[in-house]
Specification:
By secondary structure, this protein is mainly α. It has helices at about 5-20, 25-55, 60-70, 70-90, 100-145. It starts with 5 loop residues before the first helix and ends in a 5-residue tail after the last helix.
Length: about 150
Amino acid sequence: MFDLGLAELLVIGIVALIVIGPKDLPMVFRNVGRFVGKARGMAREFSSAMNQAADEAGVKDIQRTIKTATNPVKSAMDGVKDAARDVTSSLTDLDPESETGKLAADKAERAENARKIQAATARAQAERKAQEAADALKKAEELEAQAPKES
């Protein structure tokens, strides 16, 4: 729509500084920003209303039908993807006594153990940092006690 580059914005800013003055310039920029925000909001609202009207009219269904008719290879690939998704979803319902079920259980167990190790490591790190902070505080108190007191 409008294509303003850095040079154009710089020229506009310099002219605005000269014409409006440095005192009123922030207020003008604030008002311009509000106006631009309102205009964008109205454009967004208009666009969403048009998309909603198109959805209600069934334009997307017609568009999808035309795309599948013009590109049969993509349509076939979509069918393959759907079939693969169905197969992978059926693999989640495994018999726990089968080899695949045992492997899936082992994988879940390893993932749980990894989470436990990460939690224990994070806890140990937090405890170590807390101990270091306590030691530093103790050392600071000792040094403060040794320092000569000013009257």
